[in-house]
Specification:
The protein is built from three helices and nine strands. The chain is α+β, with helices and mostly antiparallel strands and about 170 residues long.
Amino acid sequence: MAPTPEFIRDLRTHIGTSDLWIPAVRGVVLRRRVGDVDLPEPEVLLVRRSDNGAWTVTSGILDPGEQPGKGAVREVAEETAVLARPVRVAGVFATHLVQYANGDRCRFLDTVLEMEPVEGEPRVNDDESVDVGWFSVAALPEPLAEDQRMVIDWALDAGAPAQLLME
């Protein structure tokens, strides 16, 4: 399970399990080339979560005052050991209500960034995941939730304006 940042634990001492609005980031790292060779299909860097076994793009809670781009770079490095750089904001959306086993409830405001790898080979780099790797977007692993497919599609739409959910 993802570790809860100290500032969230501090907030919980005041608000209990009430809904908490949390700024977060998702880094969709896309690889379109390996060395000098163009790939037939782009590949996306995914992690398999240790808490529920689902495949996801890298994501995490932003520290207070942390810029989304810096947070995405940090999360990708922490989770995969890959150094990646943000290319653009691919979209922004609010998640549905999430309720944890301990009763804590929250909603995340996710800034989704398209990113490209700079250096490093992916590996499990923390206790939040059990596997990590590059996957062709034409053959994504399961289980992969709809919101994960959505943010990957947003990132693949290179050069498009940021997506905003209006529902």
